[in-house]
Amino acid sequence: MEGIVAAFFIGGAFCATFQVIQNYTGSIPPKILLVGIGAGALAAALGIMGALGGFAGAGTGILVIGFGEAVYMAVRGMLAGDWTGILTNLVVLIVFCCMGVVAGAGHLARVKGRSAVRRRMSDADAAVE
Question: Which tens digit of pLDDT belongs to each residue from 66-95?
């Protein structure tokens, strides 16, 4: 039970930190994601992520900083001659990009549909008057 509480608080602290950064700077989410990935890679290189992962478990592994740690470990493996980490991260990145494109297309279709309905309603209101 203690591990769950630690994961909740550490993960929540990271999420709150990045939310404050986004709100304070007015930055767009992709930039915040890149900052998170870079912070995770830097923390992994300094040995901080290993200690946090041992304490908070999934509280660090499922966040963007966890992906930064995975990228760091994959690049380290690639430099040692093992390409499986880079290929795995590349596949994960491609899948997430495809999911983002599909979600964006669905959102755009929904927004365009709403505006078309509003136009039809305003045209019908004008015809009544």
Answer: 888 888 888 899 899 888 888 888 898 899
Helix axes 29-46, 48-56, angle to 10 degrees: 100
Say which residues have a Cβ less than 8 Å from residue 12's Cβ, sequence separation at least 6.
59
- Non-local (6+) Cβ contacts of 11 within 8 A are 56, 58, 59, 60, 62, 63
What is the C-alpha to C-alpha distance for residues 116 and 2, in angstroms, rounded to an integer? 52
Sign of the torsion formed by the C-alpha atoms of 47, 51, 54 and 60 = negative
| Contact present, 7 and 57 (Cβ < 8 Å) | yes
**Is it the case that residue 107 has pLDDT exceeding 70?**
yes
> Within its chain, how far is the Cα of 9 from the centroid?
18
Instruction: Tell me the two tokens of residue 112.
Output: 């365009």
Quick one: tokens of 108? 């755009």
Query: What confidence tens digit (pLDDT) does each residue in 27-48 have?
Result: 888 888 888 888 889 988 998 8
Q: How far is it, in rounded angstroms, from Cα 57 to Cα 52?
A: 7
